[in-house]
Amino acid sequence: MTDDVPALEVVNLHASVDGREILRGVDLAVPAGRLHALMGPNGSGKSTLANVLLGNPAYEVTDGALKLLGEDITALDPGDRAGRGLFLGFQHPEEIPGVSVLNFLRQAISIRTGINDYSVLETRLKVMEWTKRLGMDNRFLDRYLNEGFSGGERKRNELLQMALLQPVVAVLDETDSGLDIDALKAVATGVTEIRNERPDLAILLITHYHRILDHLPPDVVHVLVDGRVVQTGGPELALEVEARGFDAFRSKVA
Ligand code: ADP
Ligand code: MG
Questions:
Q1: pLDDT tier at 70 (50, 70, 90 boundaries)?
Q2: How many helices (H) and strands (E) would you count in the chain?
Q3: Which of 126, 156, 203, 215 could form a disulfide with 188 if both were Cys (CB 3.0 to 4.6 A apart)?
Q4: How far is the CA of 181 from the centre of ligand 2 (A)?
């Protein structure tokens, strides 16, 4: 993998929902192996960016481009993006009644690896290895996806998917939201475990709090306000956000 081609690149991205422009020219690039934090107040467009990255058809890209390892993926559908190694950990993982965790993972791995009908046994073995490494209870494997899961279980289940799918880029949308301090630490430890296994993995960690960054120190911090990255800097930028609040960055938008 060459150093000069970022794992993920967002170029002058403009995107709308219901005809309203939410992202108004977002630029950022995450190199392989790096962890970038994207911070921004509620409503700034963080989840919109995550959805656009994954190709949610409710969001229309009106200008700009998305690149994965230098390849333009703007026109690809969500399945193709996932197949190429783009992963999204949702802010609010959906319940999918009737689909067991195990079956879901098996089908997702089939798409990612291109191996048709990935074996149940193989999936179970991999899942057992990773539930152990992520400190998860593996009894819920046979339960339906996210049905009745606690907030912490849902988030850790997203990490389990991330570990098994071996993405090139993982976008984690507020993986820390709604978690108590122990669950937060478990999530941070899980992300670190996955990074140790796959040093080339690029991560875009979306959050509006500093606290998860104490456990997952970012290489670079981007501040998103009103649909634009208004500042990019080192880890100290997260502390500045914490100290001054997002409003201090709003003036930079105009
Ligand atoms: P954040 O994740 O930073 O809190 P969002 O991206 O969720 O922000 O929202 C940004 C703006 O886009 C908000 O005004 C929100 O109401 C709007 N928006 C996001 N998704 C949708 C959607 N699916 N339908 C309509 N409006 C949306
Ligand atoms: Mg959000």
A1: very high
A2: 9, 12
A3: 215
A4: 20
Q: Tell which residue, 172, 184, 188, has the closest CA to residue 37.
A: 172
Query: 171 pairs with which residues across the strands?
Result: 88, 204
Would you tell me the crossing angle of helices 120-133 and 151-165 to the nearest 10 degrees?
Answer: 120
CB-based burial, 94-111: b 16+ in 10 Å, e otherwise: eeeeeebbbbbbbebbbe
Regarding beta strands 220-225 and 228-233, do their DSSP bridges make them parallel or antiparallel, or are they unpaired?
Answer: antiparallel
Q: 129-176, pLDDT tens digit by residue? A: 999 998 887 777 778 888 888 888 888 889 999 999 999 999 999 887
Coil, helix or strand for 157? helix
Q: What is the pTM of this model?
A: 0.93
According to DSSP, the residues that pair with 110 across neighbouring strands are none
Check pocket membership of 20 for ligand 1, CB cut-off 6 A: no
The single-letter code of the amino acid at 242 is E
Q: Is the CB of 44 under 6 A from ligand 1?
A: yes
What spacing in Å lies between the alpha carbon of 47 and ligand 1's midpoint? 7
